[in-house]
Amino acid sequence: MKYTMKSLRTLFTILFTAIFAGSPGRAFAAVAQIEAGNSPVYYSFDKGTKEVINVYVQVLNQRYAWFKVIHEVDENKYKNLWRIFDSYMCELKDGAMVSLYPILTAGENEFVWRAARDGVVEFTGGYHGNERIDLHPESGISFVADDKPLDLRASIPLTACTTFRYVQHSTMHETGIGGLIGSADYQPIPGGGAVECFHEKKTVFSNGGFDCYNTLTWDDNCTPVKVCYYGIFCVDGGIAKEGINESGTTVVFNDDGQMELHSTGSEITMTNDDLGITVVCNARLEQPAGIYKTSSMVWDKGYHKYYCAIDNGGTTGTRHGEEWKTVSSIHFTLK
Description:
9% of the residues lie in helices and 51% in strands. By secondary structure, it is mainly beta. The strands form two sheets. It has a 17-stranded mixed sheet that branches. The chain has a five-stranded antiparallel sheet with strand order 6-14-21-20-17, with no helix packed on it. Helix 1 packs across helix 2 (24-36). It is globular.
C-alpha cells in the first residue's frame, strides 16, 4: 500500500493518541473530532512540577477559550487548592491549540471574601490563600469529563468531550492581620488559622466560558464578613475597550484606576469591536436571598476587574451552620 505524507501523519496521530488513551476506538474518535474541530470542549492534563488542567471551550468554529486550572501549593500563604489561572483565546489548527491573545489575567477569577475583624486587610480564599484541600477528611478535588472522573496519576493528551467540570471541597481559614500576605507587615496565625467555613466550589465549562457555583457553610467562629466577591473576573484590558451595565450606562475604559459602572444589578458586558469579541459577566446570590445588599462594578486599571459583591456597608455576621450559595458566570462570544 502506498502512503502519502499526509496519510502517514494522520496514522501516526491516531496511533499516538491510542497509546495514551488506552482504547483504539476512543482514540480514533478523539482524533477525528480534533481534526474536524466539532467538539464543544477539549481538555488535557500536564503532570509537571506544577499540575495544570487545560480546558478549551468552543466560542466560534475553530476558536476556543482556554482556561488553565492550576494546582497551587504555598505554605507561606497557607494554600493548597486548584483555581482558574490565566486564560487565552485559541485557534484549533492541525490537532493543536494555538494561543492568540489573553482574555483573563492571573488574579482571582472565581470566589473570595474578607473578614471584618480588626486589622485584617487580606482576603480569604483562592489566589489570596488561607484555603486548603488537604486538612479535612471531606476535602479534595475531582475533575469530570462526560460524567467520568479523570485519573490524574499521569499526563493526558488533548482529548475531546462534551461536558467538563471540577468540584473542590476545601476549608477556609482565619486570616492574619497587619497587611497583605507576603508583606513585611503581615502577621500569620501560628500553625494556621481556625476553620472559618467549609467551601464547595463547582466550576462548569460550557458555552464559551464557565459558571462557578459556590457554597460556604460557616463554622464555629461566627466570622464577621466585610465583603464577599461572589462574582469576580480579571478581564484582560486588550479585549475590553467599552463596558455597559444593566441600566444602560456605558463607559470607554481609560485605565485610570477608578471603579466604573456601579450598579445594584449584576450583569456587565465588555466589548472590543476590533476583535469582534464580547464578554458577559454576571452573578447571583441564591441563599440567603433578599437579605444582603449586592452591587457590581469594574475596576478600570489596565485590566478590567469585574466585581459582584455582598456588601452591607459594614459587618455581615454569620452563625454556625449558616449556608451562603452563589453563582457567577463569564461567557465569551465572537462575531
